[in-house]
Predict the structure of Signal recognition particle subunit SRP14.
Amino acid sequence: MGRLQNDEFLKQISSLLEKNAGKSSIYITQKRLSHDIEAEIGTEPFDDIQKDVKPTVFKSITSTKQYPVLVRVTDGDKDKKKKVKLSTVVRPEDLDKFWLQYTNILKAGFPGLKKKSKKKKAKRT
């Protein structure tokens, strides 16, 4: 399945969590997209560079650029035909709104998660 729009992705996650009902694992991955995928198409590796060429090391410059986030969810089914894969790209300007909706859906859809109970520390005498 291709990448979904953010709203459609959230609807699909909630239906996946309802169908799952805490019976099996759900795998969630999130990562920053640091480059434009379309810009890479057509580029070829440098095969004609001599082996004794040393790369120039540049000082790292702190970047203030904001990057989109890739969010993926799968049900982890071993049968590839039944496996559900969902993904979306969230733009930086939409991230706060998306994250709020996303976390609310996940909290409601994971019935097996419980808050940790705080243990009282024993007093030393």
User: Anything to note?
Assistant: Helices lie at 6-20, 37-40, 95-109.
